[in-house]
Amino acid sequence: MKIKNLLTQFLFLSIFTLILILSVYNITFGDTQIVTSVGPMQISKIESGLTVYQGYRGKYYTISPFNDFYIDASGVRSTFITKDEVENKSYITKESVYKTQKIADTLTSYFGVKTPSTKIEGKLGGATYTSFTQDNTAVISYNFTPKKSINPKRMGITLSYNADDIVFDSSQNLYNAFSSTDIENFEKIYGLSFTPKKGELHLNIPGGRMYIANPKGAYLLIVEADAHQQISLNKNSRLIEITQDAEKIDDSYKASLTLKVEHTLRKEDLAWK
Q: For position 215, which CATH number holds?
């Protein structure tokens, strides 16, 4: 045990010394890519926000100010980063500019202390995204600080899903499916009986939970709404949306999304909320 502790200390000092040497010789650091595990998946920062993914299977689920939104007193919905800003790439992704900060990020990322976060600014304001993970649960939050005098009444945070995902709710209503064969196999394996829901493109979901599975992935995503939140499905944009009343704290508005990631659907997951 003593030898193991000595080796750990030696490794830490070696990494720290190497980073200091690079800094002294003015070698620039790229952006530190911080990755955190949550169940069988990972969370990391991308240009458009944060993403939950199984990279080797090519499946990504993104939380982004390109999709996240606020609703004003007139019921008008606006995204934090406008369509024009996205198309022209005129938004700004904030990165660390100090070498000391990059050194700290490198060390804390290596030892699993720092979790993925990012800040993206547009003409309406800045959105700072943070993540907290424990075992198979992730809580992803944003703080939106407006530059202009806007007065949101509701705030929304979203999670994207894929065209070939199986998306269903606590009452076994099926909202998205790519193949009838995939659905039949999924029902047989887990003893489910789905009711297809077609027609409406935007629906409020009762029960406080949405489930995402994929025939090619070894995971089940469970999106949970708190008591003060409403969960809905935007089929047109392939988004699961969590909305809540706007609350201003220190010039910012906050919203959060709770995500559980399982390897597969379990009996306790079928105890519908």
A: 2.70.98
What mean pLDDT comes out for the span 225-239?
A: 94
Res 183 pLDDT > 70: yes
Amino acid of residue 168: F
- Domain extent, residue 196, equals 37-97+115-270
Q: Which two tokens stand for residue 243?
A: 């909305």
The domain tally of the chain equals 1
* Buried/exposed code over 167-187 (b: 16+ C-beta within 10 A; e: otherwise): bbbbeebbbbbeeeebbeebe
Query: What does the pLDDT read at residue 13?
Result: 58
